[in-house]
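Sample entry (212 residues):
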Amino acid sequence: MKRRLFGHLFAALLVSSLAWLTVPASAADEAPDALIQRLTTEALNSIKADKAVQSGDFDRVIALVDTLVMPNVDFKRMTASAVGPKWRQATPEQQQRLQEEFKILLVRTYAGALSQVNEVKFRVLPMRSSPNDKEVVVRTQVIGRGDPIQLDYRLEKTPGQGAGWQIHNLNVMGVWLVDTYRSQFAQEINTKGIDGLISTLAERNQANAKKG
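Predicted structure, serialized as tokens:
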């Protein structure tokens, strides 16, 4: 059940990020809930038209993630939060490897959920924030065949050139994605260290690749 729900979550992340290449420069001033609403609306038709993505074609999905999702997700922050305090002790090379393996893990685990995108709709709920907030949660619902699924995006507004909102965590039905992996990663780090976690992620990704 939890994997299915997080599958919806990751699919929604891809959906909500697909339209970023066509976002105008004024998007930096756009309210985060309006941004999520517009992006999901614009992106749904794009995903529905891409049968390779819906079928879970890994090469196609990873290309989509690299091109359309990663520029709009603070994935370094997401990985660091999942790794926990030991992240600061990792070398730059280890941090890069952790990000790479974590990204592949997420894509391989949840890419299959994209096949369900034709069956779902998204609804953005009223915001609970002030205009001056730099970090917000945009609450949405994934509406499919069963009961609506809670899906929340945590975003931070980045300063300077290219400023805009970036996703750094997601919550489905009260469970935050980063928190779920933090407990798993902590066990590996405590017994095997950072290199041990990297090896475990790489082995898991290789095993998932063999399964297809």
